[in-house]
Every structure is written in structure tokens, then in C-alpha cells.
Amino acid sequence: MKGVTMTSELPFRFFDCDNHYYEALDAFTRHIEPQYRKRAMQWAKIDGKTRLLVGGKVNKFIPNPTFDRWRRPA
After folding, report:
1. Is 60 in contact with 68 (CB distance < 8 Å)?
2. pLDDT tens for each residue of 8-52
3. Secondary structure (3-state) at 27
4. How far apart are CA 36 and CA 20, in angstroms?
5. Residue 4's pLDDT is what?
6. Strands across the sheet with 49-54, in order?
7. Phi-psi sector, 47: left (phi>0), alpha (psi -120 to 50), beta
8. What's the DSSP call for residue 60?
């Protein structure tokens, strides 16, 4: 909202104020129809790191697709 500012303190601590949340690793694949599995994203361990495969190719756009280094909510 343009021109709106927060001037009062909140009575609680917040962790994530932009509505991001993290899905389970199989959230987009657990119910996919078998004929589409190879075309969907897949997870693979490469050099000890969990990587995202899209169409069978390593996706390098997201360097940490599991977001496992982020802080947990307090």
C-alpha cells in the first residue's frame, strides 16, 4: 500500500514477513502421474549435495534448492 508506514511496535517477534514458506522436497512430485515423472523436476545427490534436475539436467539457477542453510524460525 503506497504511503503506509508502520509506526507501532509489534507485540511479538516475526520471522518471515514476505510470506515465503518451504515445501517438502516431494511436494511437486509425490502425486504426479507416472507418464510425466521424467519431465518433472527430480532430486539427485551430486558430490554430496542435493541438486534439482529439470528435464534430466542439473538446474544451476538455484544454488541451494533445499534452502537447508537458512535459519529456522525462533
Report:
1. no
2. 777 877 766 666 666 778 887 888 898 988 888 888 898 888 888
3. coil
4. 27
5. 56
6. 41-46, 49-54, 57-58
7. left
8. -
User: Which amino acid is it at 69?
Assistant: R
Helix, strand or coil, per DSSP, at residue 29: coil
Copy the grid coordinates of residue 55: 528435464
User: Each residue of 57-71: pLDDT tens digit?
Assistant: 898 887 777 776 666
Cell of 37: 515423472
By the 8 A CB rule, do 50 and 66 touch? Answer: yes
Task: For Cα atoms 62, 64, 61, give the angle at the middle one, nearest 5 degrees.
Answer: 10
- For residue 70, what pLDDT is reported? 61
Which among 65, 74, 71, 69 has a CA at the least distance from the CA of 27?
A: 65
Amino acid type, 60: K
Amino acid at 35: Q
